[in-house]
Specification:
Blueprint: H1 7-11, H2 15-27, H3 41-44, E1 60-64, H4 67-84, E2 88-92, E3 97-103, E4 112-119, E5 124-128, H5 135-148, H6 182-199, H7 212-228, H8 247-305, H9 309-440, E6 445-450, E7 453-455, E8 462-464, E9 467-472, E10 482-487, E11 503-508, H10 512-520, E12 528-532, H11 543-560, E13 565-569, H12 578-594, E14 601-604, E15 610-611, E16 614-615, H13 628-646, E17 679-682, E18 688-691
Helix pairs in contact: 2-4, 4-5, 6-9, 7-8, 7-9, 8-9, 10-11
């Protein structure tokens, strides 16, 4: 800083004009032809040559300028920081930005107050530092210097007009080509010298005075610039891309459009006021021109008639007043021109923001279109899935109908099979009886005739075909083996009369102790005694006590009924308690192992009433007791054990009668999940037989 000189007085020095030309020559090549849009959020929201922004803070501020004023800001920054304050000046990033660091004063001279960066590609000026409040005064000096600098790039093609300093004590001079106006110029100069000598003000060299035609021309140019350059009314032609779907985006867009309309209306009002002021100024300039012409005429008349000195003084005072008024009007015109330029820059900035918003809206529309396409694809997939579900329902209905038909056919087949089994049992009983009777005596046989329909070929009438079966007329029921069944409520559905081939009776014994009592009171001597107990004892007795009680029951039977054989019908699986079921299976295994080598004691397993040790629900009426279908399987197991014990043959089965849905040897369920009408029973030789009881 040269002494204590202010920056304003520094600019008033004569060598500054030459310095401006030198700086312009060296730095003009750094200014781009057009500016790019800034990328940062704060830079986008920066105001035009104004640091009063909401985004600015105590350590950061940013503002923007346009391309035509960027060189002025660079020159002003160079004059203020490099020449006036002797601060560091550097160009970085291949001349894309200019950085200036301002250091502190006194003891902390090494500390940096703030750092100013001019981005030449975007026209953004950024200030950062811990002492950024000191930049406020410096900003006013930079703005003042920028407004007064007129590089050669901004000069008009008309060389008749040149702007100099706008100090309070200076005037704008003009060149006058008209020979007759030189007298007025000399008179005005002389009057100005006299006035300044009287007031004690230093005189300023007056070179030229701009005529009124030139002022009208400048005002007309300013008006044309204001009307032809990008005015705010053109913003109405810029239509934002409307969003397609979401109401929130429409509301935000409507808000932004309303704000832009309000801004445009305010700018139009300001421009209208500016136009009115310019028109008033033109009228005043015309009046001033008329007044100057009248003064010239008066001066000529006064020169011709040799007016007195008092009139000359009045004329000089009048000229001084007119010159001061003209100076004020010219300053007002320049001020309005600067305002117009500022408004135009603000409009450009708002248009840039609007274009960025439009780009964001376009991106949102593209995103929405992709989302809508994905939604359409998902809807198509949902429709296809619904169609598949409908097809599946149709298939399930068809399968249900087929399953019902299969069930009906299966029921018919089961009825036929039951009838066949009964007939086979009858034949088997008759065969056994015939064999015994043929060995014992030679009693006469009776002939049993069965009717069979036969069609006579002659007359179409039917007559019976006699089938003879030789049988004894004597009663053979007393020759069947006698069987006594003692059991719990599991045998509730057992009909002893249907145990074909055996003379069977049954008594209820719910526990082992009750079975012992029934045995002690038994008067007849059966060939076989069957015990179906133990299932109720599991609830109250331990496993060892149960085994001991069963052994005592077997020993008591061997003592009281020496010639009777014993069958232990093991309890079937149960579902009421998992622990009881496990204990029951363990007891069954221990009993089978205990009496495996004993010929007069046989264990009859009922595991085929379940699957993998768990009860099959189709054979049970509750969690413990079996139903009619389960009773058939249990009786079939007992009959197989009896036939194996007495060496009797099992009923024959025709292989042609085997249905197609016969279960496999692993007792796996059918594909439709319904139970078969044929139950598997395991014989002593581990072969599987299908048996209907």
């Amino acid at each position: 800083m040269p002494g204590n000189m202010s920056f304003k007085n520094f600019l008033a020095r004569r060598e500054i004009k030459e310095r401006v030309k030198v700086i312009e020559k060296n730095l003009s090549n750094l200014i781009p032809v057009s500016l790019k849009n800034p990328t940062g959020v704060k830079a986008k929201q920066a105001k035009f040559e104004d640091i009063n922004n909401n985004n600015n803070s105590e350590t950061y501020c940013v503002f923007r300028t346009r391309q035509t004023r960027l060189l002025k800001w660079v020159i002003a920054s160079y004059l203020f920081y490099n020449d006036f304050l002797s601060a560091e000046w550097s160009k970085k990033d291949e001349n894309k930005k200019i950085c200036i660091e301002l250091q502190g004063e006194g003891e902390k001279s090494t500390d940096i107050k703030y750092k100013l960066t001019i981005f030449l590609t975007t026209g953004t000026i950024q200030v950062q530092g811990n002492n950024i409040t000191s930049f406020n005064d410096d900003f006013d000096n930079l703005k003042m210097c920028t407004d007064t600098i007129n590089p050669s790039t901004d000069e008009e093609s008309d060389d008749d007009t040149r702007l100099i300093d706008l100090d309070d004590n200076t005037v704008i001079d003009i060149e006058v080509e008209v020979e007759g106006e030189k007298i007025v110029v000399e008179a005005i100069k002389q009057a100005d010298i006299n006035i300044r000598e009287i007031n004690g003000v230093e005189t300023v060299d007056m070179k030229d005075i701009t005529p009124t035609e030139t002022m009208d021309k400048n005002a007309t140019k300013l008006k044309e610039v204001f009307d032809n350059e990008n005015t705010p009314t053109k913003l109405k032609e810029v239509t934002a891309i409307q969003p397609q779907n979401t109401s929130n985006e429409k509301q935000s867009q409507n808000k932004s459009t309303k704000m832009m309309k309000l801004q445009n209306e305010s700018l139009e009002e300001d421009n209208q006021v500016t136009r009115e002021d310019i028109s008033k100024l033109n009228n005043k300039l015309n009046k001033l021109e008329t007044t100057i012409c009248d003064l010239m005429d008066k001066i000529k008349e006064n020169n011709n008639i040799n007016t007195s000195g008092n009139e000359n003084n009045l004329c000089e005072n009048e000229v001084r007043k007119l010159r001061a008024e003209k100076k004020e009007r010219i300053a007002f015109v320049l001020e309005q021109g600067n305002k117009i330029k500022t408004l135009q820059c603000e409009i450009e900035h708002q248009r840039t923001l609007l274009s960025s918003k439009n780009r964001e809206i376009e991106e949102l529309n593209e995103t929405m279109s992709t989302k809508s396409n994905s939604i359409l694809e998902s809807e198509r997939e949902i429709k296809s899935m619904k169609n598949k579900v409908k097809d599946q329902e149709m298939i399930e209905k068809k399968l249900t109908c087929k399953n019902e038909e299969i069930e009906a056919l299966t029921e018919k087949l089961s009825e036929k099979t039951m009838l066949l089994l009964k007939k086979e049992d009858e034949i088997f009983d008759l065969t056994v009886q015939c064999k015994k009777l043929s060995d014992s005596d030679t009693a006469p046989f009776t002939q049993v005739k069965g009717k069979k329909q036969n069609t006579d070929s002659g007359n179409g009438e039917t007559k019976p075909n006699e089938i003879s079966i030789e049988s004894r007329s004597s009663d053979t029921k007393g020759d069947r083996p006698k069987v006594k069944i003692l059991g719990s409520s599991i045998l509730a559905h057992v009909d002893p009369s249907r145990m074909y081939g055996f003379n069977t009776t049954m008594e209820q014994a719910y526990t082992i102790q009750q079975a012992k009592g029934k045995l002690e009171n038994m008067k007849d001597k059966p060939d076989v005694i069957i015990y179906q107990v133990l299932s109720n004892d599991v609830k109250s007795e331990s496993d060892d006590n149960i085994m001991e009680s069963m052994e005592e029951l077997v020993q008591l039977t061997e003592t009281l009924k020496e010639d009777s054989k014993i069958i232990l019908s093991l309890p079937p699986p149960r579902k009421d308690d998992a622990k009881w079921n496990v204990r029951q299976r363990a007891l069954n295994a221990r009993l089978e192992a205990r009496y495996h080598d004993k010929s007069n004691v046989v264990c009859s397993s009922n595991e085929n009433l379940g699957y993998n040790g768990h009860p099959n629900a189709k054979f049970y009426r509750d969690d413990v007791h079996i139903n009619m279908q389960g009773t058939k399987i249990l009786c079939a197991n007992i009959l197989n054990t009896l036939r194996n014990m007495f060496g009797l043959p099992h009923p024959r089965r025709n292989s042609n009668d085997r249905p197609n849905n016969w279960p496999n040897r692993y007792d796996q369920p059918r594909f439709n999940g319904r139970p078969t009408n044929y139950e598997q029973t395991r014989s002593r030789n581990n072969s599987f037989r299908s048996r209907k009881y």
